[in-house]
Amino acid sequence: MTDVAVHRARPETKEQRSWYWYDWANSAYVTTTATVLMSPYLTSVAKAAACPDLAAGATCTTNLSFFGVPISPGSVYPYTVTISTIVSAIMLIFIGAIADRSSQPTRLFAGFAWAGAAAAGLMFFVSGSNWQLGVLLVMITSLCLGASLVIYDSLLCRIANENERDRVSSKGWSFGYLGGGILLALNFALDLFHEDLGLDRATSTRVSLLSAGLWWAAFTVIPYRGLRHITGTVAPPVDRRAGVLGGSLTQLRTTFRELRLYPQTLLFLVAYLFFNDGIQTVIGSSSLYGIEELKFDETFVLGVFLFVQFVAFFGARLFGRVAGKVGAWRTVLYGIGLWTVVVIVAFVTPQRATTTFLALGLLIGIVLGGTQALSRSLYSQLIPKGREAEFFSLYQAMERGTSWLGTLAFGLTFQFTGSYRWAIVVLILFFIVGGLLLSRVDMRRGIEEAGNPVPVVV
């Protein structure tokens, strides 16, 4: 059996401090746009297209037509995320293979980040009944975000050793929630005082969407400059005549054949597919649920999400400390149990039950960042050296903003029942299945099979 790791955790390095800032940068889009604003805003634009004469507070019963397929306006955003994920699942694995062989991985990372930020900023022009533009931009942004995160996450393996990754990953996530929370606070103020500024609600929302793109682009400069010295590649060499793309395609075929040699890694990925789909769908649909099902106004829901962001900053740090005591694997399992409680509470919450909704927000904030941050660091221990971006592309296809089973189940349940309450409760199955599969992952064995040193606390 492989000996326990001998690498000790070091003091925080300059590269680690630079790396944190991309969580800060992209979380502005993830929080303001993907989580809070775009779902209800795109739904309202879709409703305006389907029912242009709909009275305030009335229910739109007319479907939109997308290449002849009838779509409920309330299902447009979940279906958009579903399609984005299917496209991403195909594209990201190629991007990961190419990134492992790129001589400038940080430049590739920044290119995808700035392209995604540009698409996010262009959401300012989604207005009236132009829901198709919104769908297109959400898809482009989702793909670019996923591509940048494939490379960003893989850099974790190069800036932190096995005993540092839980701490570094958790701190990065906490940075993300703090940065996302600050921009959300500014956008909350804009929403609250939009009339005093001479803006209508739709215009203030569009300005907020623009601000998320600008924030993402501006703060990406910090990790790019701090990590740009990381050059070259540690991936297995390929035939020069094949080129980067041809060699990457060849290596992808090898990866899928070799994945069976890492059964614990494969089992973790399948478990992650389920419980992360549940998490992502809860996060992405919660504002829609609060506005459409629980009948809270948009300003109140935005305020609750602001509260969640700052709670999540402390929650991510707390989970990192717990993982240092009992191990990240057990801590993530505890987190999945808490997510199940979140869904149950959401299902039974009455309309306009302010106190219950705030308590729900507190619970989400505590568990939100920790499960995701520790899942990232857990997976980094299970992948072979030199194949980080390639393996993280499989991981990222199921990461935040790119889940598809959960959003598909959510959208279909609403389509057939007309109730977001039943749509949300379906997600319990994802946490149950994901938790059971994760409980069967033998982390120590998986780390050894990948040829990596075993952390002191697994």
Automatic annotation (TrEMBL):
<feature type="transmembrane region" description="Helical">
    <location>
        <begin position="331"/>
        <end position="349"/>
    </location>
</feature>
<protein>
    <submittedName>
        <fullName>Major facilitator superfamily MFS_1</fullName>
    </submittedName>
</protein>
<feature type="transmembrane region" description="Helical">
    <location>
        <begin position="355"/>
        <end position="374"/>
    </location>
</feature>
<dbReference type="InterPro" id="IPR020846">
    <property type="entry name" value="MFS_dom"/>
</dbReference>
<feature type="transmembrane region" description="Helical">
    <location>
        <begin position="205"/>
        <end position="224"/>
    </location>
</feature>
<keyword id="KW-0812">Transmembrane</keyword>
<dbReference type="GO" id="GO:0022857">
    <property type="term" value="F:transmembrane transporter activity"/>
</dbReference>
<feature type="transmembrane region" description="Helical">
    <location>
        <begin position="108"/>
        <end position="127"/>
    </location>
</feature>
<keyword id="KW-1133">Transmembrane helix</keyword>
<feature type="transmembrane region" description="Helical">
    <location>
        <begin position="133"/>
        <end position="152"/>
    </location>
</feature>
<feature type="transmembrane region" description="Helical">
    <location>
        <begin position="299"/>
        <end position="319"/>
    </location>
</feature>
<dbReference type="InterPro" id="IPR036259">
    <property type="entry name" value="MFS_trans_sf"/>
</dbReference>
<feature type="transmembrane region" description="Helical">
    <location>
        <begin position="261"/>
        <end position="279"/>
    </location>
</feature>
<feature type="transmembrane region" description="Helical">
    <location>
        <begin position="76"/>
        <end position="96"/>
    </location>
</feature>
<dbReference type="Pfam" id="PF11700">
    <property type="entry name" value="ATG22"/>
</dbReference>
<feature type="transmembrane region" description="Helical">
    <location>
        <begin position="394"/>
        <end position="414"/>
    </location>
</feature>
<keyword id="KW-0813">Transport</keyword>
<dbReference type="InterPro" id="IPR050495">
    <property type="entry name" value="ATG22/LtaA_families"/>
</dbReference>
<feature type="domain" description="Major facilitator superfamily (MFS) profile">
    <location>
        <begin position="266"/>
        <end position="458"/>
    </location>
</feature>
<feature type="transmembrane region" description="Helical">
    <location>
        <begin position="173"/>
        <end position="193"/>
    </location>
</feature>
<feature type="transmembrane region" description="Helical">
    <location>
        <begin position="420"/>
        <end position="438"/>
    </location>
</feature>
<keyword id="KW-0472">Membrane</keyword>
<dbReference type="InterPro" id="IPR024671">
    <property type="entry name" value="Atg22-like"/>
</dbReference>
<dbReference type="GO" id="GO:0005886">
    <property type="term" value="C:plasma membrane"/>
</dbReference>
